[in-house]
């Protein structure tokens, strides 16, 4: 191959932007970037450009934001126009990372070397939308990134390369996201360098065993059920940082967000789950179904995330008060 490998990139959030930046900085021509349409976000619900769009605009890369790539979907005219644009854009391979739109077979077939995906899990574990959150929530001790060749299924394509990283006891979705974004960016550039050098990549089918699905995180999952073990609740809080946070309601109806918590040995067995058993500057300890949970970072509606010490200065809590149990 005499020319550099030309890479069309499709992705939306920060995780994808890290990959795009690494590909661009490695000198691969990027003739077109696809990202999702701007979405309302923040308190004012103003339209916000995706992280990938911001990078593309800053670096003068051609950009398209189709609402769909499916001719049989809700936006057939826009999909047809985007597919036409892809076909008219000379490129060799398409890299996809957390794009959020389904790629039909017609799109997968356009690039000479197909479509390659950066996926934030050790496939086939955690196929789907929220692999980082679900790996923490489930208590996995390690995760990683899989580079795979895309097919029409949901994260079912053959694997091209894999890199592992441990999940540390204090990792949140935010911290693990940043590690995996950097790992994925390095891994995709290695794969593109190899593809450019040899003209092919060796693919290994995913194992048939160990398949799990990482469903999208819903706000309705945020509520902490104090009847669960403290270990599980601590993982839930870490998995749901930065979104949607752990949600709890005090006995007077005040809602709170729990942003950091750790399991501790229960001091009083038989205490009703959800009961505050200790209040100290080190944390507010709440009885759980098994063990107890020490809350160390809290937030009230409209307020900021606060350490327990700062929080208690504004809202005193005392032992014996209760958090509501979800119905």
From TrEMBL:
Please indicate which superkingdom the organism of origin belongs to: Bacteria
Amino-acid positions noted as binding (6S)-5,6,7,8-tetrahydrofolate in the UniProt annotation, renumbered to this chain: 121-124
**Domain Formyl transferase C-terminal positions:** 216-315
Residue ranges occupied by any Formyl transferase N-terminal domain in the UniProt entry: 6-192
Which keywords annotate this record? Protein biosynthesis, Transferase
> EC number(s) of the enzyme?
2.1.2.9
Q: Which Pfam families match?
A: Formyl_trans_C, Formyl_trans_N
Could you tell me one molecular function GO term of this UniProt entry?
A: methionyl-tRNA formyltransferase activity
Concerning InterPro entries, the annotation shows:
Fmt (IPR005794), Formyl_trans_C (IPR005793), Formyl_trans_C_sf (IPR037022), Formyl_transf_N (IPR002376), Formyl_transf_N_sf (IPR036477), Formyl_transferase-like_C_sf (IPR011034), GART_AS (IPR001555), Met-tRNA-FMT_C (IPR044135)
Q: Which reaction does it catalyse?
A: L-methionyl-tRNA(fMet) + (6R)-10-formyltetrahydrofolate = N-formyl-L-methionyl-tRNA(fMet) + (6S)-5,6,7,8-tetrahydrofolate + H(+)
Q: Which GO terms describe its cellular component?
A: cytosol
Q: Matching PANTHER family, A to Z?
A: METHIONYL-TRNA FORMYLTRANSFERASE (PTHR11138), METHIONYL-TRNA FORMYLTRANSFERASE, MITOCHONDRIAL (PTHR11138:SF5)
Q: What does this protein do?
A: Attaches a formyl group to the free amino group of methionyl-tRNA(fMet). The formyl group appears to play a dual role in the initiator identity of N-formylmethionyl-tRNA by promoting its recognition by IF2 and preventing the misappropriation of this tRNA by the elongation apparatus.
Assigned protein family = Belongs to the Fmt family.
What the entry lists under HAMAP family is as follows: Formyl_trans
Name used for this protein in its record: Methionyl-tRNA formyltransferase
- Source organism of this protein record: Trinickia symbiotica
Lineage of the organism = Bacteria, Pseudomonadati, Pseudomonadota, Betaproteobacteria, Burkholderiales
């Amino acid at each position: 191959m005499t020319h550099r490998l030309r890479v069309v990139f499709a992705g939306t959030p920060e995780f994808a932007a890290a990959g795009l930046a690494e590909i661009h900085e490695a000198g691969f021509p990027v003739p077109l970037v696809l990202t999702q349409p701007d979405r309302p976000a923040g308190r004012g619900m103003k339209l916000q450009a995706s992280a990938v769009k911001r990078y593309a605009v800053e670096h003068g890369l051609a950009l398209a934001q189709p609402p769909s790539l499916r001719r049989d979907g809700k936006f057939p005219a826009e999909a047809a126009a985007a597919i036409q644009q892809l076909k008219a854009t000379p490129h060799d391979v398409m890299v996809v990372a957390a794009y959020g739109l389904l790629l039909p077979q017609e799109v997968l077939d356009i690039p000479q070397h197909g479509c390659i995906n950066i996926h934030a899990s050790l496939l086939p574990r955690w196929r789907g939308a929220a692999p980082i959150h679900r790996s923490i929530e489930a208590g996995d001790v390690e995760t990683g990134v899989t580079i795979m060749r895309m097919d029409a299924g949901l994260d079912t394509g053959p694997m091209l390369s894999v890199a592992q990283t441990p999940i540390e006891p204090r990792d949140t979705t935010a911290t693990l996201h940043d590690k995996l974004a950097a790992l994925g960016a390095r891994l995709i550039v290695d794969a593109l360098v190899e593809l450019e050098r040899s003209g092919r990549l060796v693919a290994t089918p995913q194992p048939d065993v160990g398949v799990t699905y990482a469903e999208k995180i819903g706000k309705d999952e945020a509520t902490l059920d104090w009847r669960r073990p403290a270990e599980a609740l601590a993982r839930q809080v870490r998995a749901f940082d930065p979104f949607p946070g752990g949600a709890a309601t005090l006995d007077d109806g005040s809602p709170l967000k729990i942003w950091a918590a750790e399991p501790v040995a229960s001091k009083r067995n038989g205490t009703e789950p959800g009961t505050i058993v200790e209040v100290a500057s080190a944390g507010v300890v709440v009885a759980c179904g098994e063990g107890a949970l020490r809350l160390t970072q809290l937030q009230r509606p409209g307020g900021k995330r606060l350490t327990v010490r700062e929080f208690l200065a504004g809202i005193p809590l005392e032992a014996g008060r209760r958090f509501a149990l979800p119905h």
